Amino acid sequence: MDYKIADRGLAPSGEKKIRWAKQYMPVLRLLEEKYRKEQPLAGTVISACLHLEAKTACLLILLKDLGAKVTAAGSNPLSTQDDICAALVENGVSVFSRHGMTTEEYFENVRSALSVKPNIIVDDGADLVAMVHSEMRDLLPGIRGGSEETTSGVKRLKSMANEGVLAFPMISVNDAHSKYLFDNRYGTGQSVMDGILRTTNMLVAGKNVVIAGYGWCGRGVAMRASAMGARVIVTEIDPHRAFEALMDGYEVASMDDAASRGDIFLTLTGNTRVIRREHFEKMKDGVLLGNAGHFDVEICKPDLLDLSSSVEEARPGVETYTLKDGRRIHLLGEGRLVNLACADGHPIEIMDLSFALQLESAVFLAKNTLKPGLYDVPEAIDRAVMEAKLASLNIRLDRMSPEQEEYMKSWVE
Question: Which residues form the S-adenosyl-L-homocysteine hydrolase NAD binding domain (predicted)?
Answer without folding.
Answer: 184-345
